[in-house]
Protein 1
Amino acid sequence: MATICCKPKRTSNKVQNKESTYRLTNLSNDGDWSRAIHHDLNIKRRTCTTFIPKDKTKFDRSRSRSDVQCCCNRLHREHSWSVYEDPDIKWDAKLHTTSAYNNAYGYTPNSHANYIRCDMETDPKILTRLMIEVWKVQPPRLIMCIIGGAKYFKLNERLEREFMKGIIQAALKADGWIVTTGFKTGVVQLVGEAIHDHKVTNPRSKITAIGCSKWGATKNRESLVSSKPTSKESGNPSTTNGSKTEKKSEQELDPNHTHFLLLDDGTYYKYDTGDYRSRFVLDAAL
């Protein structure tokens, strides 16, 4: 499934005023995002604060806590906070998660795409500012939001190739943003392959492909966490030592995307981002 959000055209004066505003609020002249993220934009992560056993029928206080799983799907040893509650308490995301100092942003290890872990309570306007003011992405005149699995993409190989080529050409002509789930699977993987094929023959072309992905479902996310403690609240680096079943609930980030907004609700192994992606697209289109 592919949905396209067209950004309305502005008059030349309005465009000029908008661009002037971005220059006046430049947050990162030295290439270091730290001040922008921690102070100017104040982008946090979200973490579970209260360890409540997920499977209460198997809860045993004599059992090693490190092997017990919380309702947020972390094992006890993966918890950033050392709070332990009675197993009879019902876990509630609103009550048992909190925002915390951001410990994951920079460039992905292999593809060098810009990425940031961000609390899902973050106002989408903040992430739009991050894209344009800090990451220096051209404001879009067209936004294409593409989601869906490969099994719903019923085109033969020739039509599929032409469809993907059309998406790339539209993005190039309109300084467009391609917004996806960011994971290397389904139709998003096909989009990534189309971007790669275009870059092979047009290495200087600039295509903005943004993955609005779920932090807790990102494979090898521990490699994206800073190795140095950034705050007393940062806790231990996240790890992914879950079961084989949980490993299946993780996906690789597509290496052909240029930016990743890794949405964090404090849980692991879940893909749901609610309407956040749509809200981000609508805000960026204003």
Note: Residues 8-30, 228-240 have pLDDT under 50 and may be disordered.
Protein 2
Amino acid sequence: MPEPLLTARPNPGVKPMTPLATKPLPENIGVATKFRDFADLLDSQGADGFRARAYRRAADVVSRLERPLGEILAKEGRDGLIALPAIGTGLAGAIAEMVATGRWSQLERLRGDMEPEALFRSIPGIGPRYAHSLAEDGQLETLEDLENALHSGALHIKGIGHRRKEMLGAALAERLGRARLSTTPQPQPLPPVSMLLDVDRMYREKAAAGVLRKIAPKRFNPKGEAWLPVLHARHDNWHFTAFFSNTRLAHELARTSDWVVIYFQAEGQPEGRCTVVTETRGPMAGKRVVRGREDEQQLKEPV
């Protein structure tokens, strides 16, 4: 009696292989190139190899797609991107930004090319004055920063009232490829304060020792000097990138060697950001604190 034929059953937990595109799609190739450039920068700046490999895998998937990323985003939103192999929530957000603007903030940041004002000016209704206020007064860097600030009620910029915020929210929802949010998004997970302070300490020690790769930021750097050290670190499920603050306020207050901006990202999740500074007032004076989480930190301080 012949053996019964065995048929493979699809595993719902495994994403299917992506078919090879019969013809290269320029939009997809552009995104894949940026992912590979980002991976190369991570390698050159001493980042964990796992992270670079993840971006190269994503680049391979994107370059093989038979459909333009913009079409997937328009018809299926970010869920359509997340359904692709090797693409999680964080990478889907990066793709949405690139499709919407042709730019990618994370890549520009590592290159030292970050210019938030130019990014914000690409939004209808935002001219040079408001773009400057969003970047400097609002301390925003990306379209997602702006969207989150709008929906959380944290955006307080003179001249941007309720009606303009409504218009901005609609424009951002369309450009970032998601349904317009009617409620505040769920807060993303945050790394422990103790972990952030460890990254801050490691960054400042390595920067002082001169062992970190330095980049030449475009902003507030007329001579084009490579002065800004960059650190990549990994703790548990978290990836961190740290820089000294290069904002207008940090330069005005001479805090460019004190304020440390830490970008953090858990596996497959969107990127977050915090700033660690030396406190100058109150019971925490003289200590390093994570801005916005002082109360949490103070509760854990020994009596």
Note: Residues 26-109 form a domain with the DNA polymerase; domain 1 fold (CATH 1.10.150.110).
Protein 3
Amino acid sequence: MTALTATASPMRYPDAGSRTLMTRRAWWLVVLNVLIPGSPQVLAGNRRLGRFGLGTTLALWALVVVLAGLWFFARTVVYSIFSNSITLWVIAAVLLFYAVTWVILSLDTLRLVRFVRTAPSARAWIAALTVALMVGLSGSAAYGAYLATTASGFLSSVFQAGPSVPPIDGKYNILLLGGDAGPDRDGLRPDSISVVSVDANTGRAVMIGLPRDLENAPFSPGPMADKYPQGYGYDDTCDVDVCQLNSIYTEVELKSPDMYPDAAKNG
């Protein structure tokens, strides 16, 4: 190694006899490993590993830029991506890949630091920071992968494939109920009641909130309409304590489950 080479490449060919220089070099390698993973290897280690690390880093940055652009200019695309169970599994695999890659690059960076040549007072700090950043980055990526797989499983269990249902008057109407059932309570009483109406042609959705204390709620033709032809709770008549909209579910569940024998089968 010539003096010219050492001067031109202080990261790859440092003056190992200077603890000050080696300590400064070690801090630079640790910082670069966080800011631009793969760059320490390109500058001071295995260039093939470094190019691989840089390539994955640039790919991740490009992906983040694309997602940021979609968030600002085509937000529905982002929602579609992160609500697809298959896409979530792909995201989980990518995050696990980056978690493993960061561990490999961080451990290799520790090797390149050459602790025995650094100042004794700085060795513990350099090692602690490198390990903490490695655990933080890789752990975050691994946890993100876990969340992605969990979300994918949740979506698959909730939105199971089934026979298609034709729209009614060009609309898909979905009832959303938020209940407060518990082990120490009888039945379920929906305290949050909303109807989401989706246009079958345009996909435009409208949400309508219904007050839980609505009285004299009318029914479409069926068992409840036969029982309460003038509306639920008309003249303060019902089979539970409070004759309001959110009591209908409770009454049918506890008092008259035989009214709708196919309810469980039909979801």
Note: The first strand starts at residue 171 and ends at 179.
Protein 4
Amino acid sequence: MASVASSPISFAASFLRTKPFPRFLPIRTLRCALSSSSSSEPIEFDITFAPPKPTPSSPRGNAAFQQLFIPWIVRGEDGKLKVQSQPPAQLIHALADATTQNPKKKVKKKKPQASSSSSSSAVTTSSEPKLSKAARRYYNENIKEPPQRLSKVLAAAGVASRRTSEELIFDGKVTVNGSVCTTPQTRVDPTRDIIYVNGNRVPKKLPPKVYFALNKPKGYICSSGEKETKSVVSLFDEFMASWDKRNPGTPKPRLFTVGRLDVATTGLIIVTNDGDFAQKLSHPSSSLPKEYITTVAGDVHKRHLMAISEGTIVEGVHCVPDSVELMPKQHDIPRARLRIVVHEGRNHEVRELVKNAGLEVYSLKRVRIGGFRLPSDLGLGKHVELKQSELKALGWKS
């Protein structure tokens, strides 16, 4: 019985050694029949083989996927569009030139040097970065705000003129941080201190500084008082009316003139809300030349020019002009014209010089202050905002 039991196993082993099944053989079950001498019935048993694992097919192995086709639509020499499998030659040359002309530079990192002293580590002190002039100016104007005099802050906020602001302070109508202040020289910071005038809060943010050149017409006075109907400042009513629309959330500037022109004089006058700028330009120490064109009645002779150049007494001071010149006659202007340049700018100085020479002033117009000349295309009553270069021409360095 043992021989019969072992015979199927030996048969299967010998069968597999002599005739191995290939991997693609579709037969999965092998049926064998053996006969034994002790038994007439054959012994049947089944041998089942596991099917081979399928190998996943990769698109890379397929020849159809080995080459990816990218269509390039180019325009041929005949001007027609065509499809090709290679990129245009111009593109390949351009990429090659760009790679050759702009090679990537390798930045070599410097190794930190070892400290000479073993006991203490080396401390490298880096110098402070140097800021540009524009950056320093922006910091000084918008960030750094040192305390200022109370009267100056009220004038800059548009409450009133500096003189009127001092009167309000003396009258006890101004409070700082809940206490009445009667000293105009008190230093305050509008961004930190709480300031009230007649029960109205002064805004923390001051209005920006503005600078204008105005062609003053005849009949207007250089006064910022609200009672004056024909004031130079009233020529800016349209500008002030549209201020909130152009600058939302920003207080309106309080405008005033730099210096004065009498009611009959026309021409250039500067209007601003910057008190320091106005003080600098109008102060006699600035010595800014001011050029006037005056039209006189009658003929002008050499003795008249000599008398004007010798000067005269104005407000108790002997004033001498910088230059006097007789301008050529024009067909449309029958009267004689004089160009007179002064630098002191005292009240009615040019009119007094002409009057002292025995001439009568018919009209007077200012055309230049410092290096800034009144634009020829600026009409009467019109204004233009000054640029930074024009402010420098006026001698202002902010």
Note: The first helix runs from residue 2 to 18.
